[in-house]
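Sat 14:20. Reprocessing the chain from the morning session after the first attempt stalled halfway. Input below, unchanged.
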Amino acid sequence: MTDIAARLLPRTARRSVMRWWRTLTQRPRVGAVDFGDLRRLQPISNEWGFDRGTPIDRFYIDRFLTAEASAVRGRVLEIGNAAMTRRYGGDRVTRSDVLHAADAAPPVTIVGDLAQGQGIPSGAFDCAIITQTIQLIYDVHAVVRTLHRILAPGGVALVTVPGITRISRYDMDRWGQFWCFTTRSARQLFEEAFAPANIDVTAYGNVLAATAFLHGIAAEELDPDELSRPDPDFQTLIAVRAQKEP
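Finished this time. Tokens:
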């Protein structure tokens, strides 16, 4: 990096680039860490970053669902509302269903519990979009069995779960928040119901993204390249694509 900068950049630009490079590659000496705005006992945002822009986990969810958009087709099930079904499925979707555990008002079309599975038809859905949900259900093993049961042959479950995260106090106080995941735990969980060859698991995040997410710093406040560099030791969001056998 030093040799490249010396050959290609004027001196003033070279100094700026090298300062930036040192912040990425060199560790400050013990006792000399500059915490800046992060030296605080409360997060910068208590709204996950919604009040500042796009939350970090939502940035990664968009990356995942954009890459898997072709699977959002036919009859699609989503939790809470149909926003992602519409956004990523468009005119490929022939029927949209919305599942909620208790609320029967529109846009909810099915009242049911993913763990119990009651009220959710078997073999009915070509796609199920389950984002940031199953960590709120204690019996995650039953959830995966339900997902396999309700998918049509060849149907796809698109699931995201948290890795490094804060507690959602709203959910914790109402029904509980039980789990965080790793790529290994997510894969092993889904292999209880889906064929291993039909499961793809992806981790998003790095130490900077995880730190920003915990503080509620928005995705727009980081460079896309900083968000896009994965570090398997700092898994901020885990995404699972699981397909039922044809």
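The chain has one domain: 46-243.
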